[in-house]
Amino acid sequence: AGATGSAAGPSASLLCSCEILLLTPVAFRTRALRLLAGKVSLAARVDFFGQSKEGEKGKAMREEIVRALIKAQEPPPAPQKKALPAPDERARPKRGGKKYRRMKEKYELTEVHKQLNRMQFGVEEDQNGLKAKGLGMLGKSIASGRLKIQAKQQKKLQPSRKRQQQMNRGAGARAGNETAGCGFSSSLTFTPIQGIELCNPDAAGAAANPAVAKKQAANTKTNYFSSTGKFTKVEKDLASMVPKAV
Fold first, then answer.
1. Chain centroid to CA 28: how far?
2. I need a labelling partner for 25 at 20 to 30 A (CA). Which of 80, 87, 102, 174 fits?
3. What is the mean pLDDT of residues 84-93?
């Protein structure tokens, strides 16, 4: 059975017309309805077994529901202001090294800003137009008066002695492995008649230099076409082919 009123809806039950729910703000009525539904089921069991004929259990359940709703409507606690921790007075270690020095040089003030922040004693500084922005000592060190500073000499970082020795050893090893020949030279030639021919690469050098050609001819004649040398390997092979007498 439904009930009339602002709390009653299309699917409202009998609990929507009770006093606790009607006195509860609209934002907390769903929470109150859930609490009532749970306590009503417990109260029905107590009433069925006749354990509380005077209604003490029901009153205790009502007070519990009211306390829960009052607690839910309390505003959240205000944020507490916490004191900042005491500063640590001990000296902290400073970072160093080549990498950190380079990072500091990257973000440090330029020489122009350093000159802008300096003032010469007893000398009036120049100003930039009508903005009354002082230029400090910028342009005072040069006779021409131009807003220019001397270029800072950058120190070139040299490799360490150990690294230099490793580089020298590597360069020497590469120089020993390199040859004087060109990487694009080949012993194959293309001719319009026979197509691809296999030629001697040393022939071109011998044709250009007669002394080299003469030396190569002497070596070739001595090694392959000597008048005194013999083909000992061929003679051994022929001797092994002659049948032996039985």
1. 51
2. 80
3. 80
